[in-house]
Amino acid sequence: VSLDYIFARTNKPQGVTYEFKPKAAPEREEMRRFIEMCFDPQSPMNEKLKETLFRMMEGEQ
To answer: What does the domain layout of the chain look like in residue ranges?
Structure first.
């Protein structure tokens, strides 16, 4: 039971679902550009390594 329900802010026991979608911070965009610069586009593992780094970077939020 949610506190929203206990304090009568809603009639649903699960409460209100809030969805937080932060805007990309400028430093994150700079980091993304830096990662793009670091990899050789001709490398076969280029895309997988970049995606791994991007996922790791997103996990820091």
So the answer is: 21-61
